[in-house]
Specification:
Blueprint (H helix, E strand, L loop, with lengths): L10 H28 L1 E6 L4 E6 L4 E6 L9 H32 L10
Antiparallel strand pairs: 1-2, 2-3
Length: 116
């Protein structure tokens, strides 16, 4: 009868390797996250009339508005341009973050064949 609960054939060594790989990947992810937080993403709307810069932390850092687009009789257009530029800059930051995480997740395939 087979013995239950054990890992015959050296499995503990493989587990140690898996743990080391997981710890290495965790460090790499932390470093990549710190690097991501230092990046900036800028988007423009209205042909460059409004420019917005966000950080990798997804915080608005700067909003630049061309004087020519400031029309007291058409505030709604300016508001729309700001929203469009902010949303595009945030999308750029999210896309960069997703790409980074995708690269990191691609490395998980080497963890003993576990498809996390």
């Amino acid at each position: 009868m087979a013995k239950r609960g054990g890992f015959p054939g050296g499995m503990p060594g493989n587990m140690n390797n898996l743990m080391k790989q997981a710890q290495r990947m965790q460090r790499q992810m932390e470093e990549s996250q710190k690097e991501m937080e230092t990046k900036e993403f800028t988007a423009k709307a209205g042909g460059g009339a409004v420019s917005v810069t966000v950080t990798g932390k997804k915080e608005v850092k700067e909003v630049i508005i061309d004087k020519e687009v400031v029309d007291p009789d058409d505030v709604e257009m300016l508001q729309d341009l700001i929203v469009a530029a902010v949303n595009e800059a945030l999308k750029q930051a999210e896309d960069a973050s997703s790409e980074l995480m995708g690269k990191m997740a691609g490395g998980l395939g080497g963890l003993g064949g576990f498809g996390f």
